[in-house]
Structure formats: structure tokens, C-alpha cells
Write a structure and sequence with these properties.
single chain; 100 residues; alpha+beta; Pnp Oxidase, Chain A; five-stranded antiparallel sheet; 5 strands
């Protein structure tokens, strides 16, 4: 798809897809990695184990994500969003993991 997506198309894509490419940095080198997520209409919630991306986001919480749907070479949609990483633990993480 060429051009900009409408707000409704962006919402539809974010709700429909469950995987995204997430970008973070250690302050020097960018790092892009796929991650599964849940969208609640306002926030994207991802689940990951401790590792390089989590360590980088803790140190440098500004992140960028890309969600895409590709049907064919000329039929695709993509949403890019910037935000701030916030780590959830305990009950807060469990509530988000259940979709509440």
C-alpha cells in the first residue's frame, strides 16, 4: 500500500497482528529483534526472557517498533511507533499477560 494509513487502519493492524520488530540501542549500536505482543488500544505489551534486548531497553528505554502485514509485493501495510520501554513485573505483568 502506498500512502498513509488512516487511524482506523492503524488500529486494525495493531489489533490483528501479534508479532513486531522491536528496535533498541545500547547507546552506540542499534538492535532489531522480533517479539510477540498484545495491543490494548493504547499500549503494546511484549513478553521476553532476560537477554540482550531487555538489558538494552533497561539502560536506554526509548524504543521503536514496526508492525507489518504483507500480502504481496505491492499489497502491504506497516505501522512504525516510537515509545518508552517500561518493565512490568509481578501482578502488573500477570494482568497484562492475561489481556486484562
Amino acid at each position: 500500500m502506498y500512502g498513509e494509513l488512516s487511524a482506523a487502519q492503524i488500529e486494525s493492524l495493531l489489533y490483528a497482528e501479534v508479532h513486531r520488530a522491536s528496535s533498541c540501542t545500547d547507546g552506540v549500536q542499534p538492535y532489531v529483534v522480533p517479539i510477540s505482543y498484545l495491543y490494548d488500544g493504547k499500549h503494546l505489551y511484549g513478553y521476553t526472557r532476560d537477554g540482550k534486548k531487555l538489558q538494552m531497553m533497561r539502560a536506554h528505554p526509548l524504543v521503536c517498533v514496526q508492525v507489518e502485514r504483507i500480502q504481496e509485493i505491492t499489497d502491504w501495510q506497516s505501522v512504525i511507533a516510537w515509545g518508552t520501554f517500561e518493565e512490568l513485573t509481578g501482578a502488573a505483568a500477570e494482568r497484562r499477560g492475561s489481556g486484562s
